[in-house]
Amino acid sequence: MDRCLSIFGRDSKDDILVRLEAILGPEKSETSPNATSDLSKHLKDKHSQIVNLYFTILEVVLSKEERKGNTQQITDILKNDNFHRALVAASMETVFFVNNYSSISFVDLLELCGIQAFEFWRIISSFLNFDPKMPQPIKKHFHDLEFQIIMHLAWKKNSVVHQLITKFMDQMKDESKEESIEESENSSSNAPQNKPKPVILTHPQELFFKRLLHHIANQISQICDLLALEDVMSEHVWTAMKHVVGSEGHLLINRHLNQFILCCVYGVTKVFQHPLKFQEIINK
User: How far apart are CA 145 and CA 134, in angstroms?
Assistant: First the structure.
């Protein structure tokens, strides 16, 4: 840890140490005031493992950027509080998983680290790539966490995804109002246009929605295969889900996407005169 800290400036070093103590508590403390009793005990027992893993990954990430000559990116990483909190959370989750601490919920861990599920998801790729020899069970565990985040946890109210959906909905309302005004006034093409700026997604946000569609497609494929549905019905389920995500995303807030997939399956089979009871779908 000392070797890794020596490469940082004083401000970055202080920020890192203060943040670690705020999340994990002092290394020698009996309990962590921010944690539940089970979590507090595990933090005390595995404090050094969590910290060492965190610094190992951080050093690898920064070394990669240094080799690229990307000094600005290194500065941005060191100042990114969400990145560090997510990296601590990933280190904790790994140590707990390896030691079979199944009593600690992932949601509690995120709350302790003070980050949203979306921020944790953002660092999963970097985390899994830092060690080419990472054991397969750990990789699978993090892929399972990604699925849990994309299909459910990222859609919690007031999350980053919720805020994006709200912006999209507000923009669509503004555009609809503007079109109505233009039609009623029969405005000329020379009239000044004050259209709202479109919502621009960052690269991580674009990637999130691509991964979202990927997981939805896989879920639909698996469910339709289990129910032995015809391809044409599977395609209609897929079309319905794309419409929900693209145009009715506000309906997904605080819900699990599997709920909507099952509802789309139910609706499509009914339209095609091959209705299934919900219980039949769920039992599959």
Answer: 16
70 Cα distance to chain centroid? 26
In a 13 Å sphere around the CA of 77, the CA atoms on its Cβ side amount to 20
Q: What is the pLDDT of residue 73?
A: 82
What does pTM read for this prediction?
0.82
Question: Residue 9 has what pLDDT?
Answer: 60
For residue 142, tell me if it sits in a domain: no
Residues 6+ apart with CB under 8 A from 116: 110, 154, 156, 159, 160
Q: At residue 222, what is the residue type?
A: Q
Report the domain count for the chain: 2
Q: Residue 134 contacts by C-beta under 8 Å, 6 or more apart in sequence?
A: 128
Q: 168 and 115, same structural domain? A: no
Instruction: From 96, 250, 94, select the one nearest 170 (Cα to Cα).
Output: 250
Q: What is the structure's pLDDT at 96?
A: 93
Distances, alpha carbon 50 to alpha carbons 100, 166, 203, in Å? 14, 37, 29
pLDDT digits (tens, 9 = 90+) for 155-189: 988 888 888 888 877 776 666 666 666 666 665 55
pLDDT attached to residue 185: 62
Angle between helices 81-98 and 117-129 (to 10 degrees): 70
Is 152 among the domain residues? no
Give CA torsion, residues 56, 58, 59, 65, to 10 deg.
150
pLDDT < 50 stretches in the chain: 31-35
What letter does residue 197 receive in the DSSP assignment? Answer: P
